[in-house]
Amino acid sequence: MPTVSFTRVLQRYLAAPYANVEGATVGDALGAVFASRSTLRGYVLDDQGALRRHVVIYVNGRPVNDRDGLSDPVGPRDGIHVFQMLSGEQ
Fold this sequence. Notes:
Ubiquitin-like (UB roll), five-stranded mixed sheet, 5 strands, 21% strand
């Protein structure tokens, strides 16, 4: 199962412990996390389901390519890391 973890900055405001979840894509994995922690969804995704401008996601150290549909594939041993950008452009 992929592991999803959130930056410590986010954890100061919301309960966001790491989670082992089922999912074949980044979107699937995040959906599994949001099912049990719905307040995180509004921080990470906009109302269209795309990543917010101030959020970046890496899978095994590489940035996701699909910020809108979150269709990047993930495997059972992959690490998905959700970060808040603190300054600058993407």
